[in-house]
Amino acid sequence: MKQIYRIDADRMISSSNHNVYINETLHPNRIMKEHDFVYIEEGYWEIYQNGECYKLYPNDIILLHAGEHHYGLTPCSPNTKTMYVHVNCDDHDHTGDGEESNRHVALDTVIHSQDSSKIKEIFQQIIYTQLSISTYKDVKLSTLFNLLLLELYEHPAFTKDKPNIAEQIVQFVQQNPHRFFKTKELSEEFYMNERTLMKQFKNQYGKSIYHYQLDMKMEAVRIFILNHPNVKLHEVALNFGFYDEFHLSKTFKKIFNISPNQYRLQVINNKK
Asked: pLDDT digit string (tens) for 155-189?
């Protein structure tokens, strides 16, 4: 079910601001006459709308539609920071099956904007303008909100050209060589069920996420020792996400049938 918004309506923003929840807090249980757009800056929150739970992470936006029941059952994490915008509901705003026109956009309830600084900037501009004194403040706010709708609409279309989920995981793992990721961590990072994520990854790469990371790290360790034979093994272990040098040594020997220290000696002797 999509949320349909008119993009050329006269919008009236009644309230907008930054919120900080120092302690764990439930989302209010309410039905509003206005739309409530919430941007998660930091922390984690679970918010329900019409019985469906939406798990929100930093840079997620949830669109709480006017007239719909939204509430919380699980409190947010401590020190959660949000931005919100309360805006009037136009007569043409509604929920439906995704019909669009040149005057309307169809949006998902939650939009992941991790790759868009524009969306965050528009939220900030709305808050700044709403709290400021300006002759044309209402006109600016209406324009900014309609611009926000367009950015929210175009963002998912832009991200369709990104690599598929398995390729994104590989890129993410490669960018963080000092960490060894559990499947649960990756499922939360990429907003996908663990089982589905594991299946898609194995279908593409022919091995589990764990074994892919292990093989990638072992080859990286081998090359690192080859290029830096004098670096202590403890430091190498920390660089590539192993508990300690003993964990690294055991794994290395299992893969290459030689301990890293023996391999290091081979490298040094070959350079003489």
From this structure: 865 444 456 788 889 888 888 888 889 999 999 88
- Find the distance separating the first CA and the last CA of the chain, reported in whole Å: 69
In the chain the domains, ranked by start, together with CATH numbers, are 2-159 (2.60.120.280), 165-271 (1.10.10.60)
| Total-model pTM | 0.60
| CA pair distance 144, 148, nearest whole angstrom | 6
CB 49 within 8 A of CB 70: yes
- In degrees, rounded to 5, the angle at the alpha carbon of residue 29 between the alpha carbons of residues 24 and 35 is 105
Task: Provide the H-helix boundaries in the chain.
Answer: 117-131, 137-159, 165-175, 183-189, 194-205, 209-227, 233-239, 245-256, 260-271
Integer Cα distance of 107 and 141 in angstroms:
20
Residue position matching structure tokens 């920390």: 238
For 194-206, write each residue's pLDDT tens digit: 888 999 898 888 8
30-31/35-42 β-pairing: unpaired
